[in-house]
Structure formats: structure tokens, C-alpha cells
Amino acid sequence: MNPSQPTPNRLVKPTVSTKFHIDYDWWQRESRELRVYLQSHLCPEHQETYGSIDEVGMVDWIDAETAEVHRVDGLQHSLRVHCSLQPGYLTEHTSLVDAVFRVFLANGNQPLTAEELTERVHRSAQTILRTLSGGRVYQGLRPCVPEAHRSGDSRPPS
Predict the structure, then answer these.
(1) Res. 156 pLDDT band, cuts 50 70 90
(2) Could you tell me which residues come within 8 angstroms of residue 100 by beta carbon, excluding any fewer than 6 positions away?
(3) Does residue 112 lie within any of the structural domains?
(4) What confidence score (pLDDT) does residue 12 get?
(5) Does some domain include residue 8?
(6) Range of the domain at 32
């Protein structure tokens, strides 16, 4: 990344009302293996089924509300429709970063605020905010930023 290009964490001062999400582009920019990390979140049944992440490709998913067919990653689909519904997917022993990541996997990466996340991961909104808005990006968990900021424009939207 170009050092002069602003990053989303530097553009906005997040609050407990700031929405966060998984920034999948971060995984590519950082040359990280998203699919390996996703595999670690599979339930035991799917870890056994998918012995190798190379065996899992794209699958067709039908949106129940719109009846539209979408091609989606098989690992993410299994995590969302099966693994996230299993007991033990989120426990008090799940690390905060993993818990937040799992919430976004389960909800299809729909942005949530620290206040909304606290209801799901049972940690305080301030703790979530401090973790997700610090200088380090954990597993691509980042604030959502306006479109103008994503293109490198450092001016606030008017």
C-alpha cells in the first residue's frame, strides 16, 4: 500500500456507533490466506468433510427473500448456513477477534456497530471498539468507510 494513501482506520475516528465489517481486500493486500483462516472456523463435521480447502469451490446459493441465485464460496456458505448454527460456534472462551469475525461470517458480512456486536459476543462495546479501531488490523476487521474514502480521497464526504 502506498504510505501516502490514507487507510480507513486513519480517515475516521470510530465510535461505538461506527459500523465494522470484514474487509476482504485486506486479506489480499496483506498476502494472507483467508481460506486457511476460514477453515479454522468450520464445525468438526465440516472440518472432516473438507479435509483440504482445495476440495471446496464455489456453490450456488439461493437468496430466500429474492429467489436470486448467487455463486458463493463453499467454505463461507457452510460456515453461514450450518457451522454458525452449531452449539459452541461462539462461547465465552472464543477470542474477541475470532468471535467478531464469526459474527460477520454468520450474518453474511453485514456491517454492525460495536453496540450491536456486544449483544452477540458478550463483550463491552468499548472493549470491542478499542480492539477494532486500534493501530493494528485484526483479520481484516475494519470500520466501514464512505465510498469517497475508499478511492484514496482523504476529504470527508460533503
Answers:
(1) very low
(2) 20, 117, 121, 128, 131, 132, 141
(3) yes
(4) 59
(5) no
(6) 14-150
